[in-house]
Write a structure and sequence with these properties.
about 230 residues; about 20% strand; 8 helices; binds S-adenosylmethionine
Amino acid sequence: MTSEDFAERRAKARARLDAIDPHKRAGGLDADPYRRAWFEAVYELAGDDPAGVPWAGLAPHPALSQWLAGRALAGLRALDVGCGLGDNAEALAAAGARVTAFDLAPRAIDWAKRRFPESRVDYRAADLFGAPPAWRGVFDLVHELYTLQALPDALLPEAARALASFVAPGGALLVISRARDEDQRIDGPPWPLSRAQIESLAVDDLRLVSLDDIPADETIVRHWRALFRREGGK
Ligand SMILES: C[S@@+](CC[C@H](N)C(=O)[O-])C[C@H]1O[C@@H](n2cnc3c(N)ncnc32)[C@H](O)[C@@H]1O
């Protein structure tokens, strides 16, 4: 199989998925803000072909890999939100964390487990907006990559509260997202986040401790990497 085949199959999948995406239709954004059926359909229609999952890079995201380089997460409990096919969760586990990773789509979770049969990651099907109460306040590191930007702006406050709820006292939230200028008009989804939207994730007693503005290069477009911390802990 050549990489051209993959690119061609991915382009076809994107076209198919755009055609059934409520957020690509007039009125669909208000009618179906959470877009859950569409996310499930992505994995269903992909079958076993990762080219059918538009965001599946089949490798940890470089902005996460860079952040993890030289960092030891041994002994930390980490949560990967909207984990898709599991590459970022695996990278967190390889850095030493005890990782729970979840996705709305059970098919994504089954697929991740098949890809990483020896994995130490605890993969779960769960909804960010209705996660198990046992996850409240227990994770030393909560990682979110690309799920926020796949949701309409109106859901950001609810998503921010949900993310914050997982962070243990003294723990951190790491958000990686495509970036846009404040006045840049976006015809999403996805909707890259503005600086103000990233800053708005500092809810409850989370505090923004660093915000990296990662410039575009030949491999990726401009990104934010934001680290928030909750006071407290041992
Ligand atoms: C754009 S993809 C990013 C996947 C993964 N983080 C990555 O970078 O490869 C967003 C993921 O979030 C999941 N998702 C969407 N809404 C969700 C929700 N309410 N709760 C949990 N996962 C959700 C989707 O099924 C999808 O796998």
